[in-house]
C-alpha cells in the first residue's frame, strides 16, 4: 500500500481554495508534484445532445463559488457528489448545453439532501441529491440518465469501458476549467487493485475505480466532481458511478480515479425522490 497517496476532491472553487484531504497523515513536502503535464482529459468535445443528462452546478456559500458536475435523473432531481453540496447554501444548475457559460436552461435552488453517512475524510458515501424548484421540460438536449437495476449491485465491471463527462480542468497546471463539455473513455478496474493505491478504508464495496482506456493520462480532474460515469448496456446508457476523487499526485499520473457506485444507493435515491427501483 502506498502510504504517500492522498485523495483530492474534484471540485473547483472560483474564489476560495480547494481542499485536500489526507487518507494517511503525511508531510505535504513528501508528496510528488507533477506541474506542467500535458493535457489530462485527452478526450473529445461533446456534441449537442450527446449527454443530455449532464448538468453543471455552481454551488455558493457567501462569496465562495464551487463548480461541479451532476446528472439529471428525474424531472426535478439532480444526482451529484456529497462534497459538492454539503457545505453550500444555494445552487445554480445549468442544463442542456455543451457550453458551460451558455446553458439552454438555468435553475436556482437551495434544496439538497446529503447522505447521512457521508465521510468527508475518506469520501465514503459521497452522494447527494439536489431538488429543482419545478420539473424540467425534456427535449433532445435535456433528458435524464437511466439508473442501473438492483440486480447490478454485485456486477463486476472490471475491464469494461465507462464514459465520463464534465467541464473539469484539462491539465494539472491549468487554473481554470473547460468552457466546453468534454468526455473520455475509462477502463474500470477491480477494487482490490485500486485499494493498493488508496487503502481499504477508502475503497469500499460502494466504490468504483477507473484508469484511462487508451492512455495513462486520461482521467477526470478538478471541476468534474459529481458528474456521471456511464456505460452503454446493450444500447441503453446507465449511470453506474458518480465522480468523487483523484490522487493528489495529479490527475494525469496514472493513479486511478474514484467513483461512488450508484447501485449501492438506489434505495436511498428512491426514498427521497420517489423513483422506482427494480
Structural class: mainly beta
Average of the residue pLDDT scores: 86
How many helices in DSSP terms? Answer: 2
The run of helices and strands is EEEEEEEEEEEEEHEEEEH
Compute the number of strand runs: 17
Low-pLDDT parts are 12-41
Helix content: under 10%
> What distance lies between the first and last C-alpha atoms, to the nearest angstrom?
38 Å
Biggest sheet, open or closed, and with what strands and sense?
8 strands, antiparallel
**Assembly annotation:** single chain
**Approximately how much beta-strand content do the residues carry?**
25-35%
Radius of gyration: 17 Å
Overall geometric form: globular
Give an overview of the whole structure:
It is a single chain. The protein is mainly β and 278 residues long. Helices cover 6% and strands 34% of the residues. The chain contains two helices and 17 strands. It is globular.
List keywords for this structure.
278 residues, mainly beta, six-stranded antiparallel β-barrel, 17 strands
List the helices and strands and how they pair.
Layout: E1 7-9, E2 12-13, E3 20-21, E4 44-45, E5 54-61, E6 64-74, E7 77-80, E8 90-95, E9 105-109, E10 111-114, E11 128-131, E12 161-166, E13 182-189, H1 191-198, E14 207-212, E15 228-233, E16 236-247, E17 257-261, H2 266-273
Antiparallel strand pairs: 1-3, 1-16, 2-6, 4-13, 5-6, 5-8, 6-7, 7-11, 8-9, 10-11, 12-13, 12-15, 13-14, 14-17, 15-16, 16-17
Amino acid at each position: 500500500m502506498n502510504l504517500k497517496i492522498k485523495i483530492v476532491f474534484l471540485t473547483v472553487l472560483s474564489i476560495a481554495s480547494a481542499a485536500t484531504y489526507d487518507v494517511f497523515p503525511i508531510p505535504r513536502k513528501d508528496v510528488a508534484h507533477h506541474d506542467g503535464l500535458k493535457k489530462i482529459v485527452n478526450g473529445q468535445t461533446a456534441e449537442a445532445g450527446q449527454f443530455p443528462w449532464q448538468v453543471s452546478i455552481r454551488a455558493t456559500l457567501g462569496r465562495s463559488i464551487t463548480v461541479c458536475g451532476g446528472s439529471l435523473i428525474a424531472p426535478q432531481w439532480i444526482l451529484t457528489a456529497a462534497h459538492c453540496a454539503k457545505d453550500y447554501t444555494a445552487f445554480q444548475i445549468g442544463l442542456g448545453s455543451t457550453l458551460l457559460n451558455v446553458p439552454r436552461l438555468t435553475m436556482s435552488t437551495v434544496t439538497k439532501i446529503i447522505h447521512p453517512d457521508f465521510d468527508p475524510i475518506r469520501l465514503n458515501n459521497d452522494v447527494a441529491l439536489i431538488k429543482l424548484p419545478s420539473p424540467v421540460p425534456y427535449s433532445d438536449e435535456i433528458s435524464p440518465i437511466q439508473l442501473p437495476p438492483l440486480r447490478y449491485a454485485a456486477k463486476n465491471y472490471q475491464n469494461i469501458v465507462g464514459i465520463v463527462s464534465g467541464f473539469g480542468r484539462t491539465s494539472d497546471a491549468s487554473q481554470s476549467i473547460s468552457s466546453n463539455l468534454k468526455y473520455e473513455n475509462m477502463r474500470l478496474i477491480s477494487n482490490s487493485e485500486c485499494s493498493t493505491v488508496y487503502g481499504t478504508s477508502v475503497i469500499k464495496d460502494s466504490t468504483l475505480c477507473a484508469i484511462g482506456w487508451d492512455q495513462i493520462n486520461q482521467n477526470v480532474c478538478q471541476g468534474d466532481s459529481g458528474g456521471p460515469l456511464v456505460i452503454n448496456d446493450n444500447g441503453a446508457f446507465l449511470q453506474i458511478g458518480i465522480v468523487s476523487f483523484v490522487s493528489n499526485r495529479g490527475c494525469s499520473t496514472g493513479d486511478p480515479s474514484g467513483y461512488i457506485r450508484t447501485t449501492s444507493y438506489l434505495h436511498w435515491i428512491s426514498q427521497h425522490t420517489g423513483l422506482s427501483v427494480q
